[in-house]
Predict the 3D structure of the following.
Amino acid sequence: MSLPIWILIFVGALVVLLKASDWFIAAAEKIGLSLGIPAFIVGVTIVAAGTSLPELVTSIYSVLENSSEIVVGNVVGSNITNILLVLGLTAIVGKKIIIDFDIMNIDMPLFVGSAFLLYFCIYDNHFSKLEALICLIGLFIFLAYTFGADKEEKDEDAEDVTLDWKVFVTLLLGAIGIKFGAEWTVKSIIEISNQLNIAKEAIALSAVAFGTSLPEIIVSVKAARKGKPEIAIGNVLGSNIFNTFAVMGIPGLLGVLAIPENVTQFSLPLMMAASFLFLIMMITKKISNWEGYILILFYVIFIGELFL
């Protein structure tokens, strides 16, 4: 098929992937809130994992299609996009993000630790099965801590959430849509990169990372508008940790992941710099409007340098 057709397939598959993810997230969030899970815990686990589903499923299909270089591009690109673009837009829309809970106790150390783990796992352009297993152990520790913390706290909105059969049907339809959307997204990436002679990881770092981060953008911006910054911050924290541990770990056990040099030489150091910038902002427990614009500016520079 011609290039324009494959571009249309890419856009259509990405739309299906994101819409199906939205259904899945909405159903999973209702289930979590109905169980009385606190809002921040919902954001950092259920919503974060749900919004990272596009990255996970596309990465799995990338390994199965022998295009594993898409995986690391997807993870590093999504982590950069989450910090620079998602947080930036959230701060701009919400005017200011103010955190009133102790995020520096465990959550930020886990976030920074996951970034360091990713760096040391792939800086040598190699990702072994042992390193994939270590990532999954990190995911287990993260989930065990998160669900164990504040387990007696109840969310104020939990009593207003009721479950019926439609929630579970939505969950199932979302999962099916994610499967087919991810499959055709990966296939179109392969064809577009071949016809344009562009590295697959470059498309993954930019177009795919942006597309699969749209759920994070939507969830975080909506949370900012509603005056719930804990959902937005928890979403970015959880998504990046989930990307590092699960989106690298699971595909890493399914096959050998190719780690391109242009990722480790440029995008990976930028991801670490963005992570430290996020850490510094969280020390003050607030992100101002002008800091949001600076984050957006850094993201634009990242995309420009990526293709230049």
